[in-house]
Amino acid sequence: DTSGPGLHKRGYRLDANEAPLKETLAAALVYLARVKDYHTLYDPMCGSGTILIEGTMLAHNIAPGLKRKFTAESWKNIPQEVWQQERTRAQDLIKLDSDFKAYGSDIDDKSLEIAKLNSKRAGVDSKIEYYNSDIRNFTPKTQKGTVICNPPYGERMLEVKEAENLYLEMGKRFDKRPGWAYYIISPADNFEVVFGRRADKRRKLYNGMIKCQVFMYYKQ
User: Fold this and answer.
1) Which residue, 80, 60, 56, 55, is CA-closest to 70?
2) Count of CB atoms within 10 A of residue 102's CB?
3) Burial, 111: exposed, middle or buried (Cβ in 10 Å; 0-12, 13-18, 19+)?
């Protein structure tokens, strides 16, 4: 074991809300969405901010392991200078000079406070703005944007009917318009029916032991 703690533990998330998304899964979502340093990223159900943090890190070429330690660092056959050189190189590759901006909203103030702390630990708090808002009041602050979100699942945090009501509301808010793309991860087989629109593309991913699909809406 060269890493010690699992590689999904980046070192910035010491606090999480009730149903946190693993950092590696959040990273997969922002990678599939092809988040770039000129994008505006939204997560209207941001929880502890993991998707927004991973998106900001990817956009600015911030190495995911920069804030953590690895078990292999204690191995005597690897000089400490090697680790220091690589950390310095990773630090030098960071590019924070960009037009990138991220917006995260949630209805839970505690989750928002945790998200702010996590963003600060990750060193990306200057790029992310958090505020309290219900998905029913989702109003973009920009003319273009990319929305990535992990809505609550019926079998964990909400009853199935409540989750479906949420998907229905999302379908109304995430309307088809130029310059916008939406990426939603869900285990619901009937998501597209309730959401009201077939996805342009789907990808299968696992959230822990839960088989999910990423429903991608990006065609204008």
Assistant:
1) 80
2) 27
3) buried
For the entire predicted model, the pTM comes to 0.92
Residues 137-171: pLDDT tens digits?
A: 999 999 999 999 999 876 555 577 888 899 999 99
Asked if 214 and 29 touch (Cβ cutoff 8 Å), the reply is yes
- pLDDT, position 160: 79
| pLDDT (0 to 100) of residue 200 | 97
- Listed in sequence order, the residues at least 6 apart from 105 whose beta carbon sits closer than 8 Å to its beta carbon are 43, 44, 45, 46, 130, 131, 132, 133, 138
Distances in Å between the Cα of 137 and the Cα atoms of 147, 172, 184, 205, 209 are 15, 11, 18, 29, 32
- Take residue 195 and report the two structure tokens written for it: 């959401």
